[in-house]
Amino acid sequence: xxxxxxxxxxxxxxxxxxxxxxxxxxxxxxxxxxxxxxxxxxxxxxxxxxxxxxxxxxxxxxxxxxxxxxxxxxxxxxxxxxxxxxxxxxxxxxxxxxxxxxxxxxxxxxxxxxxxxxxxxxxxxxxxxxxxxxxxxxxxxxxxxxxxxxxxxxxxxxxxxxxxxxxxxxxxxxxxxxxxxxxxxxxxxxxxxxxxxxxxxxxxxxxxxxxxxxxxxxxxxxxxxxxxxxxxxxxxxxxxxxxxxxxxxxxxxxxxxxxxxxxxxxxxxxxxxxx
Length: 275
Fold this sequence. Notes:
about 280 residues, alpha+beta, Jelly Rolls, seven-stranded antiparallel sheet, three-stranded antiparallel sheet, 4 helices, 12 strands
């Protein structure tokens, strides 16, 4: 009998979209700002330490049918090691809980936010999201210069959402994930810009043929209707990526660049809620 290795006991049993109390909206917005891609932030020693954490010290793991592995580790240990350095480099990093996971994936991530579930924010609000690229595996290096690097990164969108973790899959009745609620109808969506102002969005406006063909052919073009690109954060070993957790983001289609696999750590930071 096959054991279910995709579902974890902590996965929500009934996924639903729960409204964020309006009195908390300004607190969500306070930390919003430009995304960052800080080069050579981590040493090789740091990266090897993190890789050992992923492989040797995880306490739970998920193996998804789409080719993604999640490794859950003690985030307090990671926070203790890197907090001071990250706080100096990324604004609005507070000494409050971090959550996250390591991942190895052969599948580019689809369009989503990682703001989690209401249970994670009883006394907290979302802060910055961090991504630490660990490695990529690609088959196109044989005929390229030694310093060649394939496009393999994370696309960040201008659209910020004051809602808990969500997938965006317009008009798609089948797409789903283990954790996030999936939004299939964009009609009543509200999103905000970097300054916290509500954006006037045409939810039928496409991302553009050139952008779609270059970055997003791994999912349906309709999912991107109404979304506006803010910045592409390229993946380089040693870099630190940071952006607002409320921002929609996705992986680009790295498979078309002969990247077979990528691995990293994603961290969701929090800020203390005030009355």
